[in-house]
Amino acid sequence: MTHAARAAAEPLPSIAEPVVSTVREHTAAPIRPRAEVPWVSLRFIAQLRMTYLLCEGEDGIYLLDQHAAAERVTFTRLLREYEARSVPSQALLFPQVVDVTAAELELVEERQKEIAEVGLDVRARGATSLSIHAVPRLLSRASPERLLRDLLTEVSRSGGRGFSDAVDLALATMACHGSIRAGDGLSANEAKALLVALDDADFAGHCPHGRPVVTFLSYAELERKVGRR
Ligand SMILES: [Zn+2]
Fold first, then answer.
1. Which residues contact 152 (CB under 8 A, 6 or more apart)?
2. Would you say residue 77 has pLDDT above 80?
3. How far is the CA of 184 from the centre of ligand 1 (A)?
4. CA–CA distance, 80 with 99 (Å, rounded to integer)
5. What pLDDT score does 213 carry?
6. Distance from the CA of 8 to the center of ligand 1, in angstroms?
7. What pLDDT was estimated at residue 28?
8. For residues 168 and 78, is the Cβ–Cβ distance under 8 A?
9. CATH number of 19-74+182-225
10. Residue 184, burial from CB neighbour count under 10 angstroms (0-12, 13-18, 19+)
11. Which of 56-86 are b and which e, b meaning 16 or more Cβ less than 10 Å from the residue's Cβ?
12. CA of 111 to the centre of ligand 1 (A)
């Protein structure tokens, strides 16, 4: 039997077979796979498919989702700034004009102070439009209109619960839109900076969106799989 024929005769591993353990972001569970392993101790090896960061640790291989990890970091920082009521803003070189409904305009005028506390500088420009003059500095890579819509959506959805309840959800969505995305190229230094930042962001979490930040394959598991054990 040729090698290829023998390989073909062997059953393929089932897709459902648990190869790795995953940890979820934005849940009560800590996001690091091993509490005693600081993110910064991992050695960054490569970016894969412009989406994943391959890292090596003492105990195995760590594959981070770069967007989920960056979003976690951005959200933590933004929430801290917001809770201290000191969200630094970045002024826009050219204010962005946005068409809105009368209800949205009313909401913006009613909530001027609270919107400013989130780091957005928004001004009415007539019956159906407003202009955005500054955005939270942490989110300067996002579209200003996107950020405003994230906030307005959560605030109007919250209905009677009011602004403060909606803000956590809004900040999470804004952090999503203001973070490194899949498809963004990352230098080795940027990847290392993200690992350092994760140590600071890695607390028992707060909030909504839940995607795994990291996938872990231990060397013990790897060795079992390749028949070394
Ligand atoms: Zn996201």
1. 104, 107, 108
2. yes
3. 13
4. 31
5. 82
6. 40
7. 31
8. no
9. 3.30.1540.20
10. middle
11. ebeebbbbbbbbbbbbbbbbbbbbebbeeee
12. 26
**C-alpha 206 to ligand 1 mean position (Å):** 15
**The predicted structure's pLDDT at residue 16:** 35
Per-residue pLDDT of 131-144, as tens digits, reads 999 999 999 999 99
Q: What is the pLDDT of residue 14?
A: 36
CATH 3.30.1540.20 intervals, the chain: 19-74+182-225
Between 125 and 23, where is the model more confident? Answer: 125
* Separation of CA 68 and ligand 1 centre (Å): 6
CATH superfamily entry for domain 86-177? MutL, C-terminal domain, regulatory subdomain (3.30.1370.100)
| pLDDT at position 170 over 60 | yes
Ligand 1 centre to CA of 183 (Å) is 13
Neighbours of 197 (CB within 10 A): 19
What residues form DSSP beta bridges with 216? Answer: 21, 62
What pLDDT is recorded for position 29? Answer: 36
Every domain of the chain with CATH number 3.30.1370.100 lies at 86-177
ipTM: 0.98
CA of 42 to the centre of ligand 1 (A): 23
pLDDT-based confidence at residue 202 (cuts at 50, 70, 90): low
